[in-house]
Amino acid sequence: MSAFDADRNGILDGREQLDRIEQNVADVDRDGALNINEFSRVEDPRKFAMYDTNRDGLVDNPEYAQGERITEHQYGF
């Protein structure tokens, strides 16, 4: 199951697909995680620490998906 499938129904809806595409576009080196420079291509770099929950300096797919769910909830998307 994809980390982007927020409702765990086995199907990525429009918003979930957009989040996955956004993360894939930003992942320039295709290592499956975003460093601060890659992250800054699609998000406000000031949010990096909020997304990087394990504090390893990278935002991986599950962290990015969770960060998107948190920010979308905060802003009512």
Order of helices and strands: HEHHEH
The CATH architecture comes to Orthogonal Bundle
> What class, by secondary structure content?
mainly alpha
- Please mark out the parts with pLDDT under 50 across 5 or more consecutive residues, or reply none: none
Beta-strand content bin: 5-15%
Task: Name the average pLDDT.
Answer: 86
Tally of alpha and pi helices: 4
What global shape is seen? globular
Query: At the first level of CATH, what is the class?
Result: Mainly Alpha
Provide the helix percentage: 40-55%
Radius of gyration: 12 Å
Number of strands: 2
If strands are numbered along the chain, what order do they take across the biggest sheet?
1-2
Give the arrangement of secondary structure elements.
Blueprint: H1 14-26, E1 33-34, H2 36-39, H3 48-51, E2 59-60, H4 61-75
Antiparallel strand pairs: 1-2
Helix pairs in contact: 1-4
Domain EF-hand: 25-42, 48-64
Pfam families: EF-hand_5
Protein name: EF-hand domain-containing protein
Name the descriptors.
mainly alpha; Recoverin, domain 1; 4 helices; globular; calcium; calcium ion binding; EF_hand_dom
Explain briefly what this protein structure is.
The protein has 77 residues and is mainly alpha-helical. Helix content is 47%, strand content 5%.
Report on the structure:
With 77 residues, the chain is mainly alpha-helical. It has one domain: Recoverin, domain 1, CATH 1.10.238. The chain has 4 helices and 2 strands; from the N terminus they run αβααβα. The chain has helices spanning 14-26, 36-39, 48-51, 61-75, and strands at residues 33-34, 59-60. Helix 1 (14-26) crosses helix 4 (61-75).
